[in-house]
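From the shared-data thread, chain only:
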Amino acid sequence: MWGLVPLFWPLLKPAGAIEILAHRMVWSLLAVGVALLALRRWGWIRELAREPRKLGLIAVAAAVISVNWGGYIWAVNSGQVVEASLGYFINPLVTIAMGVLLLKERLRPVQWTAVGIGFAAVLVLAIGYGRPPWLSLMLAFSFAVYGLVKKKVNIGGLESLAAETAIQFLPALAYLLWLGASGNIIFGTQGAGHAALLAATGLVTAVPLVCFGAAAIRVPLSTLGLLQYLAPVFQFGLGVVYFHEAMPPERWAGFSLVWLALTLLTWDALRTARRSRAAVEAATAQALADAVRAAETAGTAGTAGTVEAARAATAGAKAPLTEGDRGPLA
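Structure, as tokens:
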């Protein structure tokens, strides 16, 4: 759904990007509110109200995602789908770089190589365009900052979206009322079908996010990360094949470097996950063997109980990741 959303925004013309963004904010809150009402998940509001720091972070997240949403809508409706897709290809590299600069994380050599190739890709594209790919960089950095803030807030995806759109709601509604009072609003002037499409921006925002949240607790993290590359792949394909955007050689060169960097990141992540899993399994087997030896030394009567205790103690090592453990993209 995220990959096909470039097909939706042009349907909302002649509404401008800012009006579409305001509708998206207003109708998203209503859509998320209905979902929370159906699930009866309201306890988080009281807890969040007692934590001013989290409220401040959610306000930052709301501001950053507003920039991201508005920039993406404008990019699609101004015929720059390919450059928008580049932003989401670059995003993992920006996220890694921010982890190093802000969180003092240490990178493995392959990750450093990928970041370097990504930087080279931006230089190639800047030379080809005659300017840096500002739109791509804006989308990549805004979504990376959004992911970092979401990681700090650490509440569920649906609840987080509800809090963010609650902050966005009043300014967005005020803007729409101002447009209506000045006679410049498009909503309702293009027929019922167009008005329904503008209202559907809430569902277009909420439904993929709810599906992502549901998948995050069911799908292995490595698979989830790979699947997230599908969205910019679809967007890129739509830009080239459906919207017929130009792809001169320098643009192909820049995209190829980005794809090379992402291939290295994916290979390194899968290799690291396999090694970690093997280490956990080896540690579990060693713990069981030590328990059996200890039981045999103490006497055979306690062997079964000791082995079961060891298994219980080491079971957590193989437990799947929970939704809260899945990092900024979740």
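Confidence is low (pLDDT under 50) at residues 317-330.
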